[in-house]
Design a protein that fits this description.
The chain has 127 residues and is α+β, with helices and mostly antiparallel strands. The protein has one helix spanning 12-65; strands at residues 74-78, 84-90, 95-96, 99-100, 109-116, 119-126. It is rod-shaped. The N and C termini lie far apart (100 Å).
Length: 127
């Protein structure tokens, strides 16, 4: 006996193919969104490390000045890679330009801020 197809069985393979393609497209788009976000964040971390190194350079420069470092002077400099730093010496118990040095510190505090592209990092030490 010959079995005839019913109307409901026609086109099911096309429907399943479209359904599988939609699921695969959703997975690929989701993964690409995550990967592009991670790549952007990794690029920002590189800039952050360079800004931190610039701030460290500012601290080292002021420490190199030693006894000649003055609390009335703002120190600044730039590096060959385009990073820049700004440093300040603050006396104990004083607050200058948003930089505070606790009164419990014996000598002074040094605050330096490094910038590179859109990243800024700051370091403060006490001596």
């Amino acid at each position: 006996m010959i079995k005839l197809k019913t109307k409901t069985e026609e086109g099911i393979s096309l429907y399943l193919a479209v359904l599988v393609m939609v699921i695969l497209l959703a997975v690929v788009l989701g993964l690409s969104t995550i990967l592009f976000g991670q790549i952007r964040m990794i690029g920002g971390m590189e800039d952050s490390v360079i800004a931190f190194c610039a701030a460290d350079t500012g601290i080292e420069y002021i420490l190199f000045e030693g006894e000649n470092a003055s609390t009335s002077e703002n120190y600044s400099g730039s590096l060959s890679n385009g990073a820049a730093w700004i440093g300040k010496v603050v006396n104990p118990g004083a607050s200058e330009g948003g930089v505070e040095c606790p009164a419990s510190i014996d000598n002074f505090c040094i605050h330096a801020r490094g910038t590179y592209n859109n990243s800024r990092r700051a370091i403060q030490i006490s001596r």
